[in-house]
Amino acid sequence: MKIDKDTLHKIAHLARVEIKPEKEEGYIKDLEEVLTWVEKLNELDTDGVEPLTNMSFEENALRPDERSHQLEHERALKNAPKADDDYFRVPKVLD
Amino acid sequence: MISPEVRAKYKLVVGLEVHAQLQTATKIFSSDNNSFGDAPNTNVSVISLGHPGVMPKLNEKAVEYAVRMGLACNCEITEYQYFDRKNYFYPDLPKGYQITQDKTPICVGGEVPVVYDETKHSTVKLNRIHLEEDAGKSIHLEGEPDSLIDLNRAGVPLIEIVTEPVIHSPEEAGAFVAEVRRIVRYLGICDGNMEEGSLRCDANVSIMPVDATELGRKVELKNMNSIKHVIRAIYHEMDRQIRMTENGEEIISETRTYDVATGDSTGMRTKEELNDYRYFPEPDLSPLHITKDWLESVRSAMPMLPAGFREKFRKSYGLSEYDAQVITDRKEMAYFFESLCQATNNYKAAANWTMGPVKSYLNESGKTIDQLPISVESLAGVITLVEKGTVSFSAASQQLFPYLLEHAEVLPDQAAEKLNLVQDSDSDSIQPIIDEVIAANPAKVKEYLKGKKGLIGMFMGEVMKKTKGKVDPKVANKLLRESLETVK
Asked: Check: CATH 1.10.10.410 for B427-485?
């Protein structure tokens, strides 16, 4: 599968990663290789096969509506790169 | 302003998306507290914070609540479902994706009957209702270099109710939101508080020339936090689009927010032009299977809905459509009226008392109906006293009812005695007073008999004065007329 520069940058934007121009070619090559490898799956006939959404065959792994495992406020904020006494802080987002 | 003639050239087309936060004790995929108004970042867990390696687990109650809503709206309940990831970056969405249902919404189709402009009926068709998680809250303060993030709301269970584009007036849209709010409240699955954001509404608005067959370009209006604002914002957007079309301008498909203060809307920056949610099945959750037994157990526990109460109140208790609407507007009021009608057969009086003295008392005191000090039996007793003519309605509503609100332990008839409100409806004791009044006013009696029938008020006034207002006016009036006619 062929990947062009626009597609590379679209994927990079969606993943919020920055790509240096000198790296573009290498990434395009890697992506093409991965996708070509995955394309192999298209050779299988999957007509009438329901998509597998989960690796286990379990269904209805549900939880009763009961409180537990709450994190204390201080611990919740502890790993944040930036926080004050109340909030996580992030670079200003507009809209 | 746009003239009615110009407006009439276009047809409004609206589709609504209503988000309702479910009143579960815990979040949809984790067991931290689901509650509004607590100190920031106190109702959180490693799952709602999106820590690496954690696994979501679905809250059974959230599923049950969504099914209740689906049954209430006559939707088809999807037997086999899975969840999907909707991928986007925003700081109040810690995982980088929202878990939602894209391909297999829990409820499909359905409809909500609405009444608007008092007498217009319509049935709003639903596209779907799906389950998803709420995001956290971002706070952008003026002059602050940072945005502040509160993740208490992250992971709160939501149902999103999506209509087909079948709504054709702002009032109809408002009535739909009002009915959805009533339904979720009757079902006890959401408090319906639009100001606190537990019920939120987005609207897709477009216009088309009346004879067109293709829908116009739609504009999405975001987050209107009251029904009044929903109606106003849609009016504003409709007029904006008509004006643009009349001026030959092109409508851009965008998201706009309506500012209540200025009454104007502004486009939100569309830097997310490239947004592509890349939905795919959520691999961390096992599929959901609503078995027949499960569905039946939810169905059998369904409470009566506002439409059911309205019908019952009209058909069984003879209420007008308007009265039925008023009384069923709040669930608590409907239940109160229903139990009042179990205690008295005078349904008309029960409705008048509920919408009159009871409602005014609640409005004035700021109380809710479950805090009403007087019992249903006691109020039924008051109704009986008025019905029998023992106490006049005005004495009952102005004196007896307020007294009973203060003295809930006193029985109505005892209270009426104590307040000296019992009126005489015994004709034998009223007749002598009437005779007295007639004898004392021979000139007026002549005038009356000559046809000046308005004088009856003067005679009644005299009777009331002599009896200190304690005769049954109906009985006194009848006796008075009869006695006057027999004076020769």
From this structure: yes
